[in-house]
């Protein structure tokens, strides 16, 4: 079964078996995962999270699904990554799809292109369980999602203000949602924000953005990147948005290291190709291999799942992307 974002949000309470979430809209992924987690918590369902960095990590996922703890009758597992199971893992996946026993496996991956959708992994889930595509097809859908977010925050915008918000945030859903969040702190809920007020608010916010940070780090400008990071943290930019912008560039570089020259396939604009080429010359394969663990630690710190300081880890991520890591692995 294939669902879009709204269809999936309407079926959260019925989620079981395998759900594959994939797409290029991190806000939709965040909202859907938060809804699933809230449901699991309300039903006292144990939740576990796994990072799939190698094929062997799938073994841990299926071992957990086959061995519930003494205190859990149901289990929900999140598996984050872009590595599909091998043949043995696919067999275990198909067995679980056929007999999930009220347990849930949510697999979170980047957008799966047409070639990926023809794999046995994808087609097995689509035919027998649930695939959720977290992408938007047009401006109307994007606007509808943002209006939902505005209602949650009690923010009202005039029609021309909506047009400006979409243009100023370059149709980036996550960035627009963060702007709405800041506007909710500046205006009363019963006040309709007009064009001039929105322009003033966006100008105040626009000195630097998370995307400026990611661009500076990608270009190896560590001093500028650290300056921008400090500004963003002081101005209240969401740690999750900063991490998303940095991790997006890091994951693209990791993919390019494995698939040299696939710039167009990965959606990289021609005018940015040179920056990725220079970054791959500046950053060693050994450094790239350390990134998934660093990103996982940072994500856990932001979500309060560890005692590490998320701000310190964001600095480490920034410097790693700049090609000047703060810490080097001892050999």
Automatic annotation (TrEMBL):
Molecular function (GO) terms for this protein are:
DNA binding; DNA-directed DNA polymerase activity
Q: What class of enzyme is it?
A: transferase
Q: In this protein, which residues make up the domain named DNA polymerase III delta subunit-like C-terminal? A: 210-316
Among the record's GO biological process terms, what is one? DNA-templated DNA replication
Cross-referenced Pfam families: DNA_pol3_delta (PF06144), DNA_pol3_delta_C (PF21694)
The residues covered by the DNA polymerase III delta N-terminal domain are 20-133
So what family is this one in?
A: Belongs to the DNA polymerase HolA subunit family.
Q: What is this protein called?
A: DNA polymerase III subunit delta
Q: Which organism is it from?
A: Alkanindiges illinoisensis
């Amino acid at each position: 079964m294939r669902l879009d974002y709204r269809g999936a949000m309407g079926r959260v309470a019925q989620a079981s078996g395998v759900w594959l979430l994939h797409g290029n809209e991190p806000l939709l992924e965040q909202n859907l995962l938060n809804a699933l987690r809230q449901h699991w918590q309300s039903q006292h369902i144990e939740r576990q999270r796994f990072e799939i960095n190698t094929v062997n990590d799938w073994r841990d996922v299926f071992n957990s699904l086959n061995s519930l703890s003494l205190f859990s009758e149901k289990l929900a597992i999140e598996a984050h990554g872009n590595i599909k199971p091998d043949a043995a893992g696919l067999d275990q996946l198909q067995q679980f799809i056929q007999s999930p026993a009220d347990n849930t496996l949510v697999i979170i991956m980047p957008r799966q292109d047409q070639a990926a959708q023809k794999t046995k992994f994808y087609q097995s889930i689509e035919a027998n369980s649930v695939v959720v595509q977290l992408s938007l097809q047009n401006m109307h859908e994007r606007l509808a999602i943002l209006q939902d977010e505005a209602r949650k925050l009690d923010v009202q915008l005039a029609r021309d203000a909506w047009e400006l918000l979409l243009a100023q945030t370059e149709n980036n859903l996550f960035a627009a949602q963060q702007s709405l969040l800041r506007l909710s702190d500046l205006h009363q809920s019963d006040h309709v924000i007009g064009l001039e007020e929105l322009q003033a608010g966006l100008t105040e916010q626009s000195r630097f953005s998370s995307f400026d940070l990611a661009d500076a780090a990608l270009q190896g400008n560590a001093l500028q990147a650290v300056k921008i990071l400090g500004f963003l943290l002081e101005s209240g930019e969401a740690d999750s948005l900063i991490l998303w912008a940095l991790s997006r560039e890091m994951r693209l570089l990791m993919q390019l290291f494995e698939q040299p020259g696939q710039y167009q396939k990965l959606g990289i604009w021609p005018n940015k190709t040179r920056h990725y080429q220079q970054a791959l010359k500046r950053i060693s394969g050994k450094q790239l291999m350390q990134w998934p663990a660093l990103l996982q630690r940072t994500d856990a710190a932001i979500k309060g799942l560890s005692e590490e300081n998320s701000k310190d880890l964001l600095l480490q991520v920034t410097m790693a992307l700049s090609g000047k890591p703060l810490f080097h692995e001892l050999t």
